[in-house]
Amino acid sequence: MIVTRLADLEGTDRDVRSETWRSRRLVLAQEGVGFSFHETTMYAGTETEMWYANHIEAVYCVGGTGELENRETGERHQISDGTMYLLDGNEKHTMRPTTDLRLICTFNPPVTGREVHDADGVYPLVTQEELQS
């Protein structure tokens, strides 16, 4: 059994920050459970373009408001507490938080914690096995 508190991640390599968001990675590939699990805050008034070409991501909003745009279709969705979205088609998307947006995210395959968004907003596919070799 693994028990983790957000406060335990403060300042560790599982507490990842950028100009537009902060992600605390509670479960990563090294745990060996087949998914990763993150608590992410996206900052009000910012815009983040993402494209998980190598991952499926499910996101559940537990606080705040924002707008999610599917850049492939132009569809826009209002995101608020109690809203879930699933990027099951590797959609290119943009998030525009109107307030700080608190999101619970899970990735499959799991991320290792070493990924960073490239110029296209993509996380590379990095496996735990590659990190250990």
Q: What would the principal axes of the Cα set say about the shape?
A: globular
Number of helices: 2
CA-CA gap between termini: 26 Å
- Low-pLDDT regions: none
What is the gyration radius calculated from CA atoms? 14 Å
Output the strand order for the largest sheet. Answer: 1-2-3-10-5-8
* Percentage beta strand: 35-45%
- Would you tell me the structural class of the helices and strands? mainly beta
Average per-residue pLDDT, rounded, comes to 90
Helix content: under 10%
Descriptive labels:
single chain, 133 residues, mainly beta, 6-stranded antiparallel β-sheet, 4-stranded antiparallel β-sheet, 10 strands
Characterize the structure shown.
With 133 residues, the protein is mostly beta strands. Helix content is 7%, strand content 44%. It is built from two helices and ten strands; from the N terminus they run αββββββββββα. It has helices spanning 6-9, 128-132; strands spanning 15-17, 21-27, 36-42, 48-51, 56-63, 65-70, 76-80, 84-87, 92-97, 101-108. The radius of gyration is 14 Å and the shape is globular. 24% of the residues are buried.
